[in-house]
Amino acid sequence: MKVLLILGCLVGCILADTYITNPRGSNNRLNENTATRTNGNRLFDSQNNARGGHNTGDRWSGAAGNDPKKQYAMQYYASGGSEEEASKMIVEWTNQHGCGGNKDSPHKTNCNIVIQMMCMTNGTDSDYPSGTSTNANDVGERNAYIRDGTNTGTQAYAQPNAKEYTDEDVDDRNTRYNARMKTNYNNNAADRGLHETVYWYDMCRFRGANRGLYIADQDLDKGSLGYVGSERTRQNDDGTRRGYECPEERDHYPYWQPTHQEEEMDSDVQRTPWIDIAYMSGNSSDCDRVASGSENQNSRWRCVMQADSDRRYGRSIDEASCTEEAGTWVEFHSFLEVINAATTESKCNRYKAADKRNKISWMALRSDSTAKKCVVQAPPPTCGQAPWTRVNHLGNSIDTAGNASRVETDIPYFPSGESKRCVMRLRYNITTDEFDNYGTDHKQNYDLSEGVISPVEQDPFIDVSGTSKPLRLAMNTNQFGRTFQDRTHAFVVLPRTDEMSGKLLHNLNVRGKRGNIVQTFPAVEYDFVPNKLTVEEDDLLHIQWTGSNTHNNGGNGGDGQTGDAGDGTGGTDDTTSCRWSSSEMNF
């Protein structure tokens, strides 16, 4: 036990933990010319080192600057409606603290990797939000459009006060809520990045924290509403906001509430919930349980306030409490998209008959609505054994032929034929072997009045000899059972052309960024992904990469080396390909 506690400190006390290498992970970078990112709270909580990550791509030879139309969003073709028409993408990453099954050197940690996408209807360049107008259409665009932005700042947020929840007069509650949310909507900045919506985050602020979770000996403070909300978790006990991400949802998978980003789906925008793409576990026996319970095709329930409340979300996370709160316990269904052209059940059934990949149903998106739509739900996620990697090593796996950890996924099929704008996130969840990662819950939380001692404690004293003074370990219990994360920049999924019908498509991309290994670490140097690929005569190959023209990798260098070693104009991160006669030759 003493040895494991020491190892646990090593796992818990080091930053630099998971990075997506393909598609290009951002680690909250945007367009910085420094080796470290400017704002680690820009869009999401990574828990990673300030180094690592990639800038957004530039469309032309110069830097995009303040013009988002000069940024290059990677564009992938969607899969078709059958397995034979898959659009294959390799998602590749590194994770520092080990993962995978029981090999010759078994781990002292348990882990899983969760890969998800969130999408919306893409539109055209003209739909990219701009300006600060309070016109309803402009405000709506700024609050819905998934984007990288051109400014490294975090979107603004006016937090609620307790009277929005406790005032007995519903009209007063509505007045306060509407005024505050109008401020939030109007202040959404077009030049700042956006993944989740402010509506989703405000819902998170009102939702009560799940009190059945293990928080060790952490004491979660009450928020501005007078109770502990789901913006506070064991890992985020002070309620720090990062973008509009909900900390409780970020830290736990699968999440028990629907991840819908709007109260009612806008048929033109179609902001999806988080869609499960892949689940990789250190224990492959988890697959049946997790995949079968994915939100992709399984409903989630949420407390919806009655019609006299303009705020339609409440505090409760169970039906009994929702009833006491004068709410309605409503069932929500996830969706990959809604086919607007299928206005009747018979038209919807035609799409259903042609789609061998998704689940298509003529139904309402929520149980308190009678408005039926042609709803497309994604298939269950790919599930399997996580690639084995050793502890304290941001490197390759022994399960992937000498490559970094990776999984081959299918880009979703959108039967409407609409192009989509998406972002992908990868979460790396680990627990150490000090306690049962499945059997430990609120009953093991530190409570001296009940005689309960948490399996792990903050900075404990350890008697190592029985005679000498005990040693004290530097342990932070908010880092035992921990989630790390990286996300891509926004990318586009295009519909297939007629010529692509019936064909398998392989995506060939370039990972890495300019510089030697010390300068780029914890990112990587250049390579193709995949770097070995066999294709059949009728297969399709989509070759694509991008780079940044502000990749100077200058100071501040944080805890690493600065510089962008390599040929070409300093600050450029461009790639050129050429053919050669033998794979044994290098240039």
Strand runs, count: 24
Which structural class fits the helix and strand makeup? alpha+beta
Q: Return residue spans where pLDDT drops below 50 for at least 5 consecutive residues.
A: 1-16
The separation of the N and C termini measures 51 Å
Name the shape in a single word. Answer: globular
Which range best describes the helical content: under 10%, 10-25%, 25-40%, 40-55%, 55-70% or over 70%? Answer: 10-25%
Radius of gyration (CA) equals: 24 Å
**How large is the count of helical segments?**
10
Oligomeric composition of the shown chains: single chain
Mean pLDDT: 92
The largest pleated sheet is described as: 7 strands, mixed
> Beta-strand level of the residues, as a percent range?
15-25%
Task: Please characterize this protein's 3D structure.
It is a single chain. 14% of the residues lie in helices and 21% in strands. It is an alpha+beta fold. Strands 4, 7, 8, 14, 17, 20 and 21 form a 7-stranded mixed β-sheet that branches. The termini are far apart.
In short:
The chain has helices at residues 2-13, 136-144, 163-166, 170-186, 198-206, 247-251, 287-292, 319-324, 345-354, 517-520; strands spanning 18-22, 57-58, 71-72, 75-77, 87-95, 97-99, 109-121, 275-281, 300-305, 327-332, 337-338, 359-363, 373-377, 382-385, 389-391, 405-410, 420-432, 461-462, 471-472, 482-487, 491-494, 505-511, 527-529, 540-543.
